[in-house]
Structure formats: C-alpha cells, structure tokens
Amino acid sequence: MTKKTFRLMPFGFFAVLATLVAASEIHFVLLDRAVIETRLKSFTRDNTEREAILKKLFAESGCADHISEQPVKHVKQPNLICALPGQTESVIIVGAHFDHVQAGDGVVDNWSGASLPPSLYQSLNHTPRRHTFLFIAFAGEEQGLLGSESYVNHMSREDVARTDAMINMDSLGVGPTEAWVSHADPKLAGLLGSVAKTLKLPLWAMNVEAVGNADSEEFACRKIPRLTVHSITQETLPILHHPADNLKAMQLDDYYDSYHLLAAYLAVLDNSLGQPAPPPAPVAN
C-alpha cells in the first residue's frame, strides 16, 4: 500500500472548477497491484457465490461493520451495500453490478467492476471524508437493471437531495479507461479528465448508448449526476456476453490504471462536490 498525495491540475473548460480542489492536497491510498489482481481473479461463475465473495472482500477491506443487503424483486441475490461514513450527510454512490450472463465467465462484464469497490473503500478509508460513500454491488443488471432500479425506487426525496453523484463501473480492463461522456454530468466528466491529466493516466471518451445500457441510467431518472466508466470499444465489444469474456481478455496494466484513476478521482470528488461556486472571473475594461 502506498499513500498518495497530489494537487489537481486545472485545464480546459473545467479550469475554474478544478481550481476549487487545487488549493488543498488530495489524499488516498494506492493499493499494491497484487491486491487488485488477486481480487479480480477471485471470480466465480455463480452469482450467489459472487455476492459471498464480495462480502468477504468488503470485510477484509475494513467494512465489516457497515455492510447491509437490500432485497431485489425477481432476483435471488440482493444488492450489497458498504458504507464509508463521512462528516456530512452528503453522499457519493459508487456502483457496479456483480451478476453476469450464462456465456463466458463474466470477468470483464462485470467482475472487473464489481471487485473494485472493496479496494476503493480501502483507498479512501485512511483519511476523514466529507461525503458518506456508498459502495453498491448491484444484482440483476443483466435482467434489466433490476438492482439499480430497486435501489433508486427506494430512495426518498431526502436521499435524492443529498446524493451529489453516482459513479458506475462496468466492463473495465480490456483497454484504457473510458468514460460514457454523452450520458454523463459535465462536471463529473471534466473532473475525471483533470485527474487523468494530473496523474498522466490514459482516459478516452467512448459513448455506448448505441450498444447497451448501464446502472447509472436509473439514477439519471431521479436527476442525480452520474458517470459510467468502462473500457469497451467497437473492437472489444464482441467479448461481452460471449465465451471470450474470461480472464484472458483482461489487460492487467490497463485495469490497474483504471483502479488508480478511480481511487484518485473519488478523493477529488469528495473535496469538490457540494463546494460553493467560485466568484465570477474579473472582466477587463
């Protein structure tokens, strides 16, 4: 484990927003690559066993006392929720579905996403946070976003009002990190770009509305700012829902970069979201 500290580099259209964060250092813990890869390789093809493994991983990461389950109609497995309490009532949700289709091992879609929340919890847990982070492993995504739909339907008005962002992870590690920009809140996407530029980590914009859906869209229905991070291109799309979805499809260098970027990004979001807007820039006469 390596404790990381950095200052955000403002750039482009989002320079003013990024400057809000740049005044203070951003702290998070970067886990060893062996930990991230071991958790990725802990997959099983059985969805119930996947939920049990995630419970174990969350407990190992320090979340044993803050794990809860939420039943999902028409699905055997529940949503699994790990809370990292913050200093305010504001919430950032970090989600990934853990179920998979029958074809293949479901490593890319979506154990690559589902196995990261315990590590991200561990990366953020060493520094007091403003936001409460809810790390949610969604059930039933492949049956029509059932887990995320159930979660959103159970949110009260107060829950919605205090939720500043929903960050979704789906099908990572078959290439460099990508963001579904056309279905993203501009501030969330812009800050992700700032973090990637600062850390010199790859990030591409890749829109996927023509080929699929994601749990983040359920949150958009309640007007909660959202962003989905993935790694799918036209070339790698055939891996999904196919026997080729297995560990051999993973590019482990890219996968670790995605984890690194997400860990830093969540720390930045904690510092930046909910902050008052900066004063307008002076205009020369």
Spatial shape: globular
Name of the CATH homologous superfamily? Zn peptidases
Report mean pLDDT, rounded to a whole number.
90
The total beta strand count reads 10
- Return residue spans where pLDDT drops below 50 for at least 5 consecutive residues: 10-23, 278-285
Radius of gyration: 18 Å
The tally of helices reads 10
Largest sheet: 8 strands, mixed
Summarize the structure.
The protein has 285 residues and is an alpha/beta fold.
Structure in words:
The protein has helices at residues 15-22, 33-40, 47-60, 107-114, 117-124, 146-153, 157-161, 186-199, 216-220, 252-272, and strands spanning 2-6, 26-30, 67-70, 79-84, 91-97, 132-138, 163-169, 178-179, 204-205, 226-230. By secondary structure, the chain is of the alpha/beta class. It has a single domain (7-271), classed as 3-Layer(aba) Sandwich (Aminopeptidase), CATH 3.40.630.10. The strands form two sheets. Strands 3-4-6-5-7-10-8-9 form an eight-stranded mixed beta sheet, sandwiched between helices. It has a two-stranded antiparallel ribbon with strand order 1-2. Helix 8 links the parallel strand 8 and strand 9 (204-205). Helix 5 crosses helix 10 and helix 8 (186-199) crosses helix 10. The longest helix is centred in the C-terminal third of the chain and has 21 residues, at 252-272.
